[in-house]
Amino acid sequence: MADNPIAPLPAEALRAQFPVLAQSIHGQPLAYLDNAATTQMPLPVLAALQQFETTQRANIHRGVHTLSQRATDAFEQARATLKQFIGAQAEHELVFTSGTTEALNLVAQGLWAAGPGQAWLRPGDRIIVSGLEHHANLLPWQQAARLSGAELAILKPDGAGRLHAGDLAALLTPRTRVFALTACANASGERPPYEALLAQAAQAGALTVLDAAQAVAHDTPVLTRLDCDFLAFSGHKMYGPMGTGVLVGRRSALERLHPLRLGGDMVESTHWHTARFAGLPARLEGGTPHVAGAVGLAAAARFIDATGRAAIDAHVRALRALALQGLQGIPGITVLAPHATQAGLVSFVARGVHPHDIGTLLDERGIAVRTGHHCAQPLLEHLGLGPTTRASFALYNTEDEVRRLVQAVARAMEVLQ
Amino acid sequence: MSQAEQDLYQEVVLEHKRAPRNYGHLAHPTHQAEGTNPSCGDRIAVELALEHGTVRDIAFTGQGCAICMASTSMMTEAVKGREVAAAQALQQHFRAVLTGEEAPEAAPLGKLVSLAGVRQYPSRIKCALLGWHALMHAIAAPQGAAPATTPPEVQP
């Protein structure tokens, strides 16, 4: 697809690639606007899953038989595809996980689990986590701090939900060992200046962690251009299978992680009382992985690139802008982070009306949105807000769906206020 | 008017949501408890003044959706001045109607029957029961104890 100028996405042809979209909910055509929670899978991804399971399925890295070799090749080819997708270089390695949550737990636990004297985190060290995070990038650090004796500091956003370099500078100390940040806040859509913030923390000697779960399907971070030690994302938020994900990062940083899953396929040699762990990436991939999932995830990355990243970004931004404009025209609606033009989502609160009630009335019109605190309770409390309603967009959504959303929210406000 | 507007958001429900009854605190509660819904952070705290096995007074605070607020508001009206055993029996009937075990017409629900439509919306049943959970926990709580949250907070 042409990059310059950007050709619009072929909406109908693209939607035909996603069979799940062609259905009615409560007698209305499904408008699936919950993509920040999970995106749908296109036919090429479904075909890749089926092809692996029907022609290549065997355990990997073990057998000398042909099928095992084919499965191993498919798995390692998936790894290579995804490394290229995210911009990994020779200094990087990529580990398959069950998703962003496991990847972030692997980092946080891996930095204390080696125990006193061995682990990267020591008593008195500082861990800084941004206040925009999903619980998956907060709770593992709460635990890491408690079990290592480190302290947890929060880089809090201002009243508009923005992070500032000056605030980070005030928190950074010579004992800061970790800085963890999101590339896009799932609850508000805020897109922090993560390139600069990561560089600032790395400069101070911290390991840097980027949660890219919300940024992987559009405005994808490019590892080459980032001062980033660990980057995590999920397959099911980029048109890939559920239960798949990636931790990718600098080899030197990944080597600091104590493995989370000890067992088969992650050791070099084992004796009754001791074992020597294998090198990367095997040492962090103990047990039989979700091989078909990895193959499907690589197919999803190829699908994104074949569709065209610039065209996807432009499409999603345009839908978000349309939704923002429409929602801001409804009395009583306040959209969070309206300035976050790069986000693929709009999150909003309604005066006197609870998101669950809006969500039920929207569902009845076939419109799927997320309601609640989106696993980001401290952020919403910090901003003085309760739960929100969130609509999030993907390459297959249409302007018509956004207009239906705006109309349905307006009607819900009439009924409920 | 859509189906949900008809079944779920009847005028009496919206009226209780807009002006919840018995909202606030009691001067001298004997029993209290909180209920929370982890998916949305909603929280309802119920305070009771129990006397000789009777709910002499009841109040609640917190935030929730229209279903949750209306259900809790109607609950306070329904149990105020009644015996604890009657409140517990009413809770069982209300719950049984929402989970489809009892027909709404057969249950002695009074005004609460306006919430019977919730049984068609499985994801919303917990909203309608949040205040009732807090009520049951408050009744079971030791006299004078600080409000217990359910589930308890843990340190990861």
Automatic annotation (TrEMBL), chain B:
Superkingdom of the organism of origin: Bacteria
Homology family: Belongs to the NifU family.
Domain called NIF system FeS cluster assembly NifU N-terminal: residue spans: 9-127
Pfam families: NifU_N (PF01592)
InterPro entries, per database record: NIF_FeS_clus_asmbl_NifU_N
A GO term, aspect molecular function: iron ion binding
NCBIfam families, A to Z: SUF_scaf_2
One Gene Ontology biological process: iron-sulfur cluster assembly
Name of the protein this chain belongs to: Nitrogen fixation protein NifU
